[in-house]
UniProtKB/TrEMBL annotation:
Organism placement in taxonomy: Archaea, Candidatus Iainarchaeota, Candidatus Iainarchaeia, Candidatus Iainarchaeales, Candidatus Iainarchaeaceae
GO cellular component: ribonucleoprotein complex; ribosome
Gene: rpl37ae
Any one GO biological process: translation
Secretion signal, residue range per the UniProt entry: none
Descriptive protein name: Large ribosomal subunit protein eL43
Role: Binds to the 23S rRNA.
Coiled coil (UniProt feature): none
Cofactor(s) needed for function: Zn(2+)
Family indicated by similarity: Belongs to the eukaryotic ribosomal protein eL43 family. Putative zinc-binding subfamily.
Length: 134
């Protein structure tokens, strides 16, 4: 049996199809490559279990993705935090939520009920003129 294309996934034999085996091959390739430790910097990180990684040099244990210690999303968030680019957007978000809270609190419950009653009357009066004849 030739294993040039399928490499380690040749263990599945004729089962599961080529596409699935190539996906497994890509994941296993990512999983087995050496990763740098975030604490000591040496490429000695090994996967212990799903999402748990351990450095064989300094003994640091940390969480990451299922197959790789740092996912794409995690690296983006890490970069944002280090550059503090999320702070202006966070301030805008807080201001917007405060405005909506204050907007709802300014109108007392009785006034809100009156407004909804007026809207219902307008809606009902508009539909009465357009009654269909059966």
């Amino acid at each position: 049996m030739s294993t040039k294309k399928l490499k380690s996934t040749a263990r599945f034999g004729a089962r599961y199809g080529t596409k699935i085996k190539t996906r497994v091959l890509e994941i296993e390739k990512k999983q087995k490559q050496p990763f740098n430790c975030p604490k000591c910097g040496f490429p000695k990180v090994k996967r212990k279990s799903r999402g748990i990684f351990r450095c064989r040099k300094c003994g640091a244990v940390f969480a990451g993705g299922a197959y790789v210690p740092e996912t794409l999303t995690g690296s983006i968030i890490k970069k944002m935090v280090s550059q503090k680019t999320f702070v202006p957007a966070l301030k805008e978000l807080i201001e917007a939520t405060e405005k909506t809270k204050h907007g709802l609190e300014e109108i007392p419950a009785k006034a809100r009920q009156e407004k909804t009653a007026e809207k219902r009357q307008k809606h009902d009066s508009g539909s009465k003129g357009k009654e269909s004849v059966v």
